[in-house]
Amino acid sequence: MKKFLYSSLVATMFLFSACEKEYLEVQPTDAVSSDAIFTTTANAWGAINGMHRSMYFQYSNQDQAGQGSVMINADMLGEDLVMTSQGNGWFNATYQWSMHRNVNAGSLYFIYRYYYKLIANANMIIENIDKAEGPEADKKIIKGQALAYRAWAHHQLVQLFAERYDLANLGKPGVVLMTKFTTVGQPRATIGEVYNQINKDVEDAIALLDGYNRGDALKKSHINLNVAKGLKARIALSMGDWANAAKYASEARQNLSLMSNAQYKEGFNSVTNPEWMWGSYQLDDQQTYFYSFFAYMSANFNSTNIRTNPKAINSKLYGLIPATDVRKQMWDPTGASIPVPPNGAKKPYANKKFLAKSSSLSVGDVPYMRVAEMYLIEAEAKARLGQADAADVLFTLAKNRDAAYVKSLKTGQELVEEILIQRRIELWGEGFRFFDLKRTNTALDRTGANHDPALTTTSALTKPADSKEWVFLIPQAEMNANKAMTQNEL
Questions:
Q1: 77 within some domain
Q2: Cα angle vertex 10, ends 277, 296, to 5°?
Q3: For residue 22, which of 49, 130, 145, 376 is within the disulfide window of CB 3.0 to 4.6 Å?
Q4: What is the reported pTM?
Q5: Which SUPFAM superfamilies match (predicted)?
Q6: Which of 25, 87, 129 is nearest to 311 (CA)?
Q7: Could you tell me the CA-to-CA distances from 146 to 240, 242, 281, 370, 483 in Å, in that order?
Q8: Strands 331-332 and 350-351
Q9: What is the DSSP letter of 172?
Q10: H or E element: which one contains 173?
Q11: Is 276 part of a structural domain of the chain?
C-alpha cells in the first residue's frame, strides 16, 4: 500500500550522538519509538536541535539545502535578483518561471517535502513533550518552539501552494493542514482554515516562550519570544491585518538594535550581528560545500556557479539607492570591486552583500529574520492604516542606513510605495520578493533592466498579477500517492 508523500517521506525520527551534533534524518516509521525519544526533556532538546540543523541540511541535490535554498528560489522568481549568465544550470528553471509549474521538478518536490518534514517533527514534539521527564519550564520552551515551527512551515506552504490571502479566496483550497503526526493521507484544508490554525499555533507559541532566554548570540537558531512575535507580524502582513502586523513587529524588535554601517559591510554571514533575530549558526567543521546558501549567493566562494554566474541586483532598483546609503556599496555597477574567487567573472551590478568564510570554505550563517524587517513591517502596516507615525518608523531604519536621509513627507499610497522600495533594497537576496509580489497582488516586471535575455524569455519577463502561475503546483508524486489530494490549476 502506498504511503503519502507528506507523511512517508517526512515521517522522521530523531537520532542523537553523545557529542553536540544532534541531527534528524528520514527513517522508517518503525525505526524507533517516539516514547523512547521523549522519555526526558534532554532528549527533546536534542529533537529541537535536530530541527534547527535541518534548516541547512542537504536533502537531495546540491540546490536543496533547507531554508537557504528556498530563499534563493523565492528571490529567483522576483525581479530584483539577477542571474548574470546561465552558469552551470542551478536555479535556472526557477528564474525562468518553469520549476514551480513542473509537477515532476526535483526542486518543487524538495520544497514541499522540506516543510512537511519540519511539520511532522514538530507534531511529534507537541504530542509527546508533556509526558517527558524534566523541568516544566523546559517543556514549555520546547513545545513553544515546535508550535512556532509548525506555524511558520504551514505559512510558507500556503503562500506557495495556494492563492494569496484575500477575503474572496478564504474558501479556496489551501494546503494539507497537519496538526497530528500521521501517515494517513489528508485532503487540503481551505485557505481560511490554514490561516486560522497558523495564527492559533503562533499565538500559543508566544504564550509559551514568554520569559525564555536562549543565551548567547550563537543560539539564534532557537526561536524565542522576539522571533515568535516576528512570525506573527509576518503572518498578519500577508493577511492585510495591518493593526496586528504593526503591533507585533514593534513588540518583536523591543530591546534589539539595528546594525552599524560597518557591520552592514561584513558579509551577512554571522549570527553575532546584533540585528539578527533568527538564523542558522554553522560551525566550520559542518562544511556544506556546494549546497551552501553561500555557494550560490556569495561573491567570493570558489564554486562554478559563483565564478560564472555571480548574482546581481536589478539595475533599475540600484539606480534608486542614494549614493550616501551604505547599501549602495553592496553592489558594484562595474563589477570591478567584487571580491570574486580565482578566475571568477566580474559582472556589472554584482553583489558583495553575502560573503562566505573564504573562497575555499562555503560556511556562513544564514539570516532568517532581522530587526530591519520588523521596522519595515511596522512602517508599511501603519502607512496602510494612515497612521501619522508611519514615516517616523521608516525614518529610524532609513537614517541608520543613510545619514543624509530626510524624513519622508509622503502619505497614503505614496508612502507605502516608498516603504516597499526600502524593503526591496534592504531584504535583497534574503528570500522575500516572491512573497511580497504575491501578497501585494503586484505583477512581475523585469523589463528595462539587466536581466540576461538568454534566460528571461518573453514569458519570464512579465507576469500579470492575476496569472495562475503565482501558485505552485502540487508535486506529482504526492498526487499519485494521496488520493485525497487535488491539484492546482494547470
A1: no
A2: 50
A3: 49
A4: 0.94
A5: TPR-like
A6: 87
A7: 26, 26, 19, 21, 29
A8: antiparallel
A9: S
A10: strand 173-176
A11: no
Please count the structural domains in the chain.
1
Burial class (CB in 10 A: 0-12, 13-18, 19+), 351: buried
Which amino acid would we find at residue 467? S
The answer to whether 297 and 84 have CB atoms below 8 angstroms apart is: no
Give the position of cell 493577511.
239
DSSP3 helix / strand / coil % (the chain, rounded to 5): 45, 10, 45
**136 in a structural domain:** no
Host domain of residue 335: 282-351
Does residue 296 belong to any structural domain of this protein? yes
